[in-house]
Every structure is written in C-alpha cells, then in structure tokens.
Amino acid sequence: MKILDHLEEWLVTFLMGAATLIIFVAVVHRYAAGLAIPGVQDWLLSISLSWAQELTIIMFVWMAKFGAAYGVRTGIHVGVDVLINRLDDKMRAKFIVFGLAAGALFTGVVATLGTGFVWENGAHYYFFKLFGLSVEGIPEGPTTPDLEWSTWIVYSAIPLGTSLMCFRFLQVMVSFLKTGELPHHDHGHVDGLDEEVPPVDTNPYAMNDNLHPVDKRAHDGQGDSK
Q: Environment class of residue 9 by beta-carbon count within 10 Å: exposed (0-12), middle (13-18) or buried (19+)?
C-alpha cells in the first residue's frame, strides 16, 4: 500500500512540476522570439511550441484526477460537517459511513462509464491491433489537434483516476469502521520536517542585563529581604 501511496504522490508532483516548467519555457520563448536579436530570433522562431498549451491542459487534467484520490486519502477535501458533528457518536458514525459509501458508489459508476467511453473511443482498436486481432469495423478513434495523440489515452485519466478515488473511499471507510477515525490534513504541517521543540539551555530571567526579562517576584523578594 505504501508503494501505491508514493506512486500517487510522485505522479501528482511530477505532473505539477513538469506542467509549470513547460508553461514557463513557452512564455519565455514567446516573448524572446519577439526580440529583434540577429540569429537568435530566427532560431527561436524555428522552434514550435504550439503543443505546449495542449500538453499542459492534459497534464493538469491527470493531476486533478489523481490529486482528488490523494485528497480522499489524506482528508484534504473540504466538507460541511457542522450538523453531523452535533450528533451523538453512534448516529455520526452512521452518517460518515453512508457518505463514504455514497462517494465510493458515485466514483465507481463514473469509473465504469469512463472505461466504456475510453474503450469505444479508440482503446478497443488499439488493443485489438496490439494483440493481432481483427480490427475490421472498429473505429480507430480521434486524435488531439496539436500533439496528435489518440484521445483515448488522454481520457484514460477518467477511469484510472476515478477508480483510484473509489478505492480510497473504500479504504477510508474500512479504516473508520476499525478505528473510528477519519484522515485529517494539517495545513500547517510540511512533509519531511519533524516538529521538534528546540532545547532551552539558558534562563533569560537569570541574566543580569537590560536585554532580557526580569523576574519581578524574585527581584522584589530580594529587595524585601534586604
């Protein structure tokens, strides 16, 4: 399960970082190609980045689908639970299980319909051809305008990402039934950084200077004793 968790995080991180980099390069290329620099301008104009926008849109779609599954696993999704939290523990647990089961059912239906759509949109033709089966009468499917990729590859984000999201709903529901706890995301926590309390080696009240606080009670006590 840890491998799936890490794969999910690496995929979302890679897609986000790569899409940002591609957008940055495309914007710099667009503005730099407008500068009248001999030799450089002609070289930049010879490079076509018309595919950059289409690719980043595809990457963000995939990132959103798998990011949604990550959100279910970590409890990062926004939920309105004011009324549910006012119920007693037994009734609250029933509503939580119902909500998780409904989420699993909905994403399962979307994943099933998405699989059928992808299959009929060109995956049918591709896999039959891959295994040497007859493709007579099977449509090859459309391609994207700029990259000319088969659209079924792009649309595969729907069944794959939504299936993972369905699995995460079921995973959270089983965990809740066992432990009674839901995943909670701490927005102030940064992964990789351990929360440690730094040791205090000095007592600022014991320093006899004007830069540190003074213990008035001890100071007054010493004055009275004198």
A: middle
Cβ neighbours, 10 Å, residue 11: 16
99-112 pLDDT, tens digit each: 999 999 999 999 99
Phi, psi of 145 (to 5 degrees): -65, -45
Q: Count CB neighbours of 45 within 10 A.
A: 11
CB 34 within 8 A of CB 130: no
Q: Is the Cβ–Cβ distance between 33 and 41 less than 8 Å?
A: yes
pLDDT score of 68:
94
Give the angle subtended at the CA of 46 by the CAs of 42 and 48, to the nearest 5°: 140
* 190: its two tokens: 């940064």
Measured CA to CA, the distance from residue 67 to residue 59 in angstroms comes to: 12
State the pTM of this model.
0.76
In degrees, rounded to 5, the angle at the alpha carbon of residue 176 between the alpha carbons of residues 170 and 179 is 140
